[in-house]
Amino acid sequence: MAKTIKDHLQDTFDDLGEENQKKFKSKLCDRKTEPRVRRAAIEKANDSIDLADLMVNTFTSTGAVPVTIEILQAICCNQQATEFKENTGQCPGAPSNVSPQSDHMLVSISFIEHFIDRNRTKLIRRVHNVDAILDELLDKKVITEEVYSNIRAEKTPQIKMRELLMGPIKSAGTKGKDALYNALKDTDVCLLEDLEHQ
């Protein structure tokens, strides 16, 4: 019998092991984008089955896939994220062995790629005033003081921008990308306009 999204979630959480499961739950708890998961609900998830149930019940089968991928990447479990993408048919040309009843729920949540995703490489290369952006994001509570300090400590604007995009902005989802877009509008409107007209 073909596996459902919940089965794939359970397999992924089993692969994570205890330590990474703890990190996954912590990131899930810190997630600011709606729907948010209550700490009490996360604490009740004692094993992979409970955690898979929690994800599907909170985000639905459709929403649980991108949220899981986002958190796996945020905790540096890239191998599990890639395998989960492939198993749920989220990679182009990947074989999907998800059961028919949940297959229709695997439509990508955003057909229109976000400006930040579309211009990720150019932003890493061309944004120089990263500290001003970090100030804005900290004010709006998109990033924590710890993240702010860690990224500011990096040596070059390119490394700072890469860390920002691949870490907290990716974790915050669309809300984080919107906040970064607005921060760019305030700090580097010429670059923004240039990229928008390409």
Automatic annotation (TrEMBL):
Highest classification ranks of the organism: Eukaryota, Metazoa, Chordata, Craniata, Vertebrata
Start and end residues of each Pyrin domain: 1-90
One example of a Gene Ontology biological process annotation: regulation of apoptotic process
Domain annotation CARD: ranges: 114-198
The protein, known as: Apoptosis-associated speck-like protein containing a CARD
GO cellular component, one term: canonical inflammasome complex
Record localization: Inflammasome
Biological source species: Sinocyclocheilus grahami (Dianchi golden-line fish)
Record keywords, A-Z: Cytoplasm, Immunity, Inflammasome, Inflammatory response, Innate immunity
Pfam families documented for this protein: CARD (PF00619), PYRIN (PF02758)
Chief location: other
